Amino acid sequence: MGDPLFSSGISLAVFLIVVLKAVITFAVVLVSVLFMVWFERKIIADMQNRVGPDEAGPWGMLQALADGTKLFFKEAFVPERADRRIYRLAPYLSMVPAFLAFSIVPIGWKISIAGHQTWLQLADPPVGILFLLATSSIAVYGVMLAGWASGSKYPLLGSVRASAQMISYEAALGLSVAAVVLVTGSLSTHDIVLSQAAGRGAGGIVPSWNLFRLGIVPFVIFLIAATAELNRPPFDLVEAEQELVGGYQTEYASIGFALFYLAEFMNTITMSAIIVTLFLGGPSGPRIAGYSVGILWFLIKVFVFLYTYVWLRATLPRFRYDQLMDLGWKRLIPLALGWLLVVAAIRVNAAWTIGVGAGIVVAGMLLYRAVLVGRQNTDEGEGLAERPLARRART
User: Total domain count for the chain?
Assistant: First the structure.
């Protein structure tokens, strides 16, 4: 099912409506970023028993706007050893994919503009999920090129670390998305939302969201992997100030620095909207006074995840890098792959589930054994390396 806006072909009116939707979507995302910056500062301040921003505007709501204005008017410099073209291009390679990913998110149902019916989303391509995965992959290039083009070792180390982190968790994220596609039978985000809005499970009480249809596990995997992809705490190792000064954007100032942080907060909003779309039914929800208020339910669900991200930032300590990689490669990827096989077995033939489940249990035990052996070998190697140091200390 495509967008009804294009059912009668492309005309000037259709083209203008698409342009209008693009402009409104971009404006909404930018305003949402300003709100997210203020919201995060206020919530963390409240959790730490502080006031937070309170001078610029009512309740400090204009503080983010003031900070952005200041950054735009600061002097923009390019390091002497930098690759100038790539150095200037990298921030846009981080920001543009975040907006493109948000363009496929359905935030409501059908609306009418100048006599034309259209979905309340910018675009509904038939391969929307593949488009999402492609845009998330492009964001890696912005991070990597920013560190490489800066001409300094510290940004380069930060970009290598960030790229390894994002690529590692993208595998688990893709496997959890594959489970959603398998159970809904479509790559279109609008069709995914419609499949969750149609009917209820468990005696008509539980919504037929993919959160419940997939057994919660893919949702948890996607949430953890998305947090790592966003470089949000406790996975913000790319900005470990104690080791890397400031990460891959160390050499950036003014507009370049602003674009990187704009991309970070825009990605947080976009990923929250994607989670709501894939697992929580998007704008689906009960009617209020006989009216469909899909936008309201969508905003409430997104707001819950935005608050969760802020809550995690205020409470959890940063992971070590080896813990980060172990969680991604040794736990999330095997779990996501095993759960995908179980879902596939149930969809094909429920009788296969027992055999597939037994095979996954055996594979999990072997993987657990391999992880224990590797950990023991690592501990023994560290112990052998510490013995000469202990002898020197005694002498």
Answer: 1
